[in-house]
């Protein structure tokens, strides 16, 4: 049967390629999203600085607590003792004047304590409790420290003069902890400055690493000239890394140039004697069968040279608009009329991808050649191939499937390695083991992805994901 592809979607044989399935996991996997080095460094520095601020605040409060409680208790006790002594040793007329002077000058008011007075104890926090305990210890039993008496807030101290109870009211801010907007403003300012410093430090650490990452990506793409790093930076460690990376890139560039020159020399030096050998064989060997075998051997050597050159092809490639239908048709036509091979295609009309037409035709030619060699159905000996494509978002998913024996699962990941031939049929074949490796490299050069998998219904499936050309 002719290898010309059938455009009718009604495929006449049982093993028609199914509608393109979702590409296997290797094509759909995305790099795991992670936190960039800048944000990680910023986060850890911020955490460290916030922890230091909290530790400092707790240390300050601990160091301030006992001295403030002791000082406040002493001041209140002195105020009460002085007021009590002044009241005891003054006559009734001077006592009235003294009480008025204390209220006007010191903000201290003294009032009799009635039995029916209601009050709330001064014990809202640990500082107030500590002050209350110290005052009771200094002023004796019967001392009451309250924060509110008869609904009037303040710092009230209940004490006795002889047997008469009194209240002394003073400003609670005398003993209050450090509070207010000023404290919060300074704390917020310190936190903001700490975070800004953490961001600056993280940026200084991340910036040279970001440049190194970009340069490494350019080297990976084969652009050695655009990967030069600054060798005059002030930081000695970064300067040494940049110098080492630049020397490595220069060495790789030299190796790449030598490789290209060597391959060009091999191609030139081997093809000329091979052409002479073929001509001499056809003219000098009388036995037609021997001549045919020798010519086939020369053609095989020539094909092997082509495979090596294809695999070692440079990575630089400028993508262009390519009609997938035309490329697949050309690859099928290049196989010639093979009666043991049947090919069916299901590709939407005018499917345009971004790539290189010559490279893409070479890709499909390699895949079809691989199927022609290893993808024959054991029962019939026919190589039945299905090629299907599906446009999805900004990509085109292509699936080429045969109905052969497939390969064992442990060999799948090795199929795209150069010179790998995993089973007996491959070992006995005349191929080089470079076909799928050439396909993977060519697809990667075009910005796509390639993977192979065993089909659920038998056979081997090749999955290709290429960028869709914009409309």
TrEMBL record:
Domain HAMP, chain residue ranges per copy: 203-257
Membrane topology: Multi-pass membrane protein
Reaction catalyzed: ATP + protein L-histidine = ADP + protein N-phospho-L-histidine
Pfam families linked: HAMP, HATPase_c, HisKA, RisS_PPD
Residue ranges of every copy of the Histidine kinase domain listed in the record: 265-470
Signal sequence bounds: none
InterPro entries xrefs: 2C_sensor_his_kinase, HAMP_dom, HATPase_C_sf, HATPase_dom, His_kinase_dom, HisK_dim/P_dom, HisK_dim/P_sf, RisS_PPD
EC number from the UniProt entry: 2.7.13.3
Compartments where located: Cell inner membrane
SUPFAM superfamilies with a match to the protein in the record: ATPase domain of HSP90 chaperone/DNA topoisomerase II/histidine kinase, Homodimeric domain of signal transducing histidine kinase
Gene Ontology molecular function terms on file: ATP binding; phosphorelay sensor kinase activity
Transmembrane spans: 37-57
Example of a GO cellular component annotation carried by this entry: plasma membrane
UniProt entry keywords in alphabetical sequence: ATP-binding, Cell inner membrane, Cell membrane, Kinase, Membrane, Nucleotide-binding, Phosphoprotein, Transferase, Transmembrane, Transmembrane helix, Two-component regulatory system
Protein name per UniProt: histidine kinase
Organism expressing this protein natively: Hydrogenophaga taeniospiralis CCUG 15921
